[in-house]
Amino acid sequence: MQAIILAGGFGTRLQSVVKNCPKPMAPIHGKPFLAYLLEYLKSRGITQVVLSVHYLREQIEDFFKDNYQGIEIRYAVEEQPLGTGGAIVHALKNIDTAKPVFVLNGDTFLKLDYRAMYAQHHKSLPVLTMALRKIANCSRYGVVVTSGEEVIGFGEQGGEYSGLINAGVYLMDPLLFQKFSITDQPFSFEKDFLFSQIKQLKAQAFMVNDYFMDIGVPEDYVQIAKDFA
User: Fold this and answer.
1) Do 164 and 144 form a contact (C-beta atoms < 8 A)?
2) How many domains in the chain?
């Protein structure tokens, strides 16, 4: 199985505690967060990874090189920030387009059965399968609306209520964007693409009820260090 990891962000909110470092390289017990993520992906059957990189990318390239503990590593370099959507489009040039590809954020850890998600996706071969997780307070993330196994819409951030959130792991047809008029301009995969095209996409939901942590804010970075201890 193959995956794209979005690792090019600036990590602005985390810079108060982690300076001069790409967010996925934030150290946890002497090892970059991204190393934990890659090791977990390997244990779940991922053998090839494309790292989408931009900010201080040399730190990532120097650490992981072209192979990390048996995972083949390739790099999709953003010469300028492309947003999550543009970064995915750019990274897709480096993968096998004959097979579905996982796409995930380099600053989020989700305990996910990747083989099971792949198997569910393979049954009906939708253009997109999204990992969703139920949490007690969706205010930070916004809620995802489903009908049966299909994702049909999104709610806004802000309200303190329980519900399903987008856990930031996708399994997609590499030719997904060829079905839409995608420009070369930077864009957000979530806000600019998913929100407007979700009904046409007929994306499938894959439910997850396990450990989830986003290190994008200092308090969660501190928490994941405790958890990983």
Assistant:
1) yes
2) 1
From its phi and psi, is residue 26 left (phi > 0), alpha (psi between -120 and 50) or beta?
beta
∠ Cα 141 145 148 (to 5°): 140
Containing structural domain, residue 200: 2-228
Q: Which two tokens stand for residue 162?
A: 């329980």
Could you tell me whether strands 2-6 and 48-53 are parallel, antiparallel, or unpaired per DSSP bridges?
Answer: parallel
The alpha-carbon radius of gyration of the chain (Å, integer) is 17
- Strand-pairing partners, residue 74, are 50
Residue-wise pLDDT tens for the chain (229 aa)?
A: 999 999 987 766 666 677 788 889 999 999 999 999 999 999 999 999 999 999 899 999 999 999 999 999 999 999 999 999 999 999 999 999 999 999 999 999 999 999 999 999 999 999 999 999 998 888 888 899 999 999 999 987 656 778 899 999 999 999 999 888 787 789 999 999 999 999 999 999 999 999 999 888 888 888 998 998 8
What's the CATH number where 135 sits? 3.90.550.10
Going by C-beta distance under 8 Å and a sequence separation of 6 or more, which residues neighbour residue 225?
28, 29
Sheet with strand 2-6: strands edge to edge: 67-68, 71-77, 48-53, 2-6, 101-105, 163-172, 128-135, 204-208, 150-154, 144-147
Structural tokens at position 95: 């993968």
C-alpha–C-alpha distance, residues 40 and 194, integer Å: 27
